[in-house]
From TrEMBL:
Entry annotated with the keyword Transmembrane: yes
Subcellular location per the Swiss-Prot or TrEMBL entry: Cell inner membrane; Cell membrane
Record protein name field: Putative spermidine/putrescine transport system permease protein
Pfam family, one: BPD_transp_1
Annotated transmembrane regions: 14-35, 73-94, 106-127, 133-157, 197-219, 239-261
Protein's membrane topology: Multi-pass membrane protein
Ranges in coiled-coil conformation: none
UniProt source species: Asanoa hainanensis
Domain ABC transmembrane type-1 span(s) in chain numbering: 71-262
Alphabetized UniProt keyword annotations: Cell inner membrane, Cell membrane, Membrane, Transmembrane, Transmembrane helix, Transport
A GO cellular-component term linked to this record: plasma membrane
Similarity field: Belongs to the binding-protein-dependent transport system permease family.
Secretion signal, residue range per the UniProt entry: none
One GO biological process term: transmembrane transport
Length: 272
């Protein structure tokens, strides 16, 4: 019986590595093709001029102003979208769990609703809103963070809600309140440290979403990284593919880091 169990475990391990190897090949092959194309020089020689240009920001701004504008816009969109998403969701979800548990399903429904609405339909609804935004604030691409916050709500809500489900937030809050802590102290010094990994997960997912969004920015005639890549693809395919590869790798790294966020903290808790 023990030999049968070992053989079955060995077959499962082999199958698991085969599946991982095939999926890795399918995923990495297009990335290697992109890298090879961006490093191909005249006469099929190897050159890293495109990648050197990407890290030489003054030269990049002068050579490809459209790309530089899109990168700056995406940088501010990432910061503002992450900040607004966390400021809206974390206190709301915690307060609903503590004081308004009957509204939990309603809040969950509202947060997950953007998943069911195609981006093109969102643009139709957001266009009149952004007409007023342009009138009062101006037509800056940074104002897209309002729309991106809506897009990020389902992913950020699920991450934060999962983190709160892993702790007894009601007991922690009541214990802190019985010791004289105010609600701001409870939120900042009691709840947040216990859901730090969930908050970081929500932030990483929001960053990945903002860096990859194209439809809304394009249809609302705004600039971001993906719109700049699309425009450069019509005139300079090499730099366009290089930026696309860099954005893909960055998004992959962020999502890969999600598997490690909070792992050290869990190990520390398990140590007696």
């Amino acid at each position: 019986m023990a030999g049968l169990v070992r053989r079955r475990a060995r077959r499962q391990a082999v199958l698991r590595w085969v599946v991982v190897g095939v999926l890795s090949f399918v995923f990495l092959l297009p990335l290697f093709a992109l890298l090879e194309f961006t490093t191909r020089g005249p006469g099929d020689t190897l050159t890293w001029d495109t990648w050197r240009l990407l890290v030489d920001w003054p030269a990049l701004e002068e050579t490809y102003p459209v790309l530089w504008t899109g990168m700056k816009a995406s940088f501010w969109l990432v910061l503002l979208s992450v900040a607004l998403t966390l400021v809206l969701l974390v206190p709301t979800v915690v307060w609903v769990r503590l004081r308004l548990p009957r509204l939990r399903r309603l809040v969950e429904f509202l947060c997950l609703l953007p998943l069911t609405i195609p981006a093109i339909v969102l643009v139709v609804g957001l266009a009149p809103v952004y007409a007023w935004v342009v009138y009062f604030v101006g037509g800056s691409s940074v104002t897209l963070f309002l729309a991106y916050t809506i897009l990020a709500l389902p992913f950020a809500y699920r991450a934060i809600d999962t983190g709160l489900s892993a702790i007894d937030v009601r007991t922690l809050a009541e214990a802190a309140r019985s010791l004289g802590a105010g609600w701001l102290t409870v939120m900042w010094r009691v709840v947040l440290p216990n859901i730090r990994s969930a908050v970081l997960s929500a932030a990483f997912l929001t960053v990945a979403l903002v860096l990859g969004e194209f439809t809304i920015a394009s249809l609302l005639n705004r600039d971001n990284l993906q719109v700049a890549i699309n425009q450069l693809g019509k005139s300079s395919a090499t730099i366009s593919f290089a930026v696309s590869l860099a954005a893909l790798v960055l998004a992959f790294v962020l999502l890969y880091l999600l598997s490690f966020v909070g792992r050290r903290r869990r190990r520390e808790r398990s140590v007696p």
